[in-house]
Amino acid sequence: MNKLWVSLVAGLLAVTTTPAADNKKEVERVENSGTVISEILDIPDDIPQSLLDKSECVIVLPSVLKAAFIVGGSYGRGVMTCRTGEKFTGPWGSPTMVALEGGSVGLQIGGEATDFVLLLMSPRSAESVLSTKVKLGADASAAAGPKGRDASAETDAAMRAEILSYSRARGVFAGISLEGSTLRPDNDANAKLYGSEVPAKDIVLKGTVQPPACAQKLLATLNHKSPKNASGD
Q1: Regarding beta strands 75-82 and 172-175, do their DSSP bridges make them parallel or antiparallel, or are they unpaired?
Q2: In which domain, by residue range, is 190 found?
């Protein structure tokens, strides 16, 4: 009888601990994204405050390797978080996992790991990425983001583009073109992170899940650095 109870308890422990073990990579991805955005936003000469304040969503892809794009079919993975509320006017909300696929000449920036940050400047771009695979430069207009504390948000690129992209490699931060690459929801990673299959659109637009603990730094940084959406100003 005792052996039976031991077996049952061991089985229950295996069931309850497996999800935590299974989502280790996703948790680390969210945590790393928080570290990347915190480091970048702590430097005023990186992303202009005016552009950050007018963004609806932010995508962070930490440690993407150039080699992955050269081989073809590989991709970088990261997270996307948006301001909550019907018109993206609330605090930054639960992250959804995303994947960056394909390549372009803009990715030829060295062999070391590169961090990418993308600003989504329109509700349409946000809803598109949450729903399906979006090709940058075709399905959504994209441009290298201007940088510097005095960079004007009124530049031609910023005025036209729905998605502004930046990179950081070897300590160098710059705007970079990702045209030709695609963004899509990483639904498998979402299922692991949240413990159930939840559509990316529901996570972001409907707030169906609470932010995981691993997203604390990511959301705290964005809510501190850009608490208000200025796109309607």
Answers
A1: unpaired
A2: 24-225
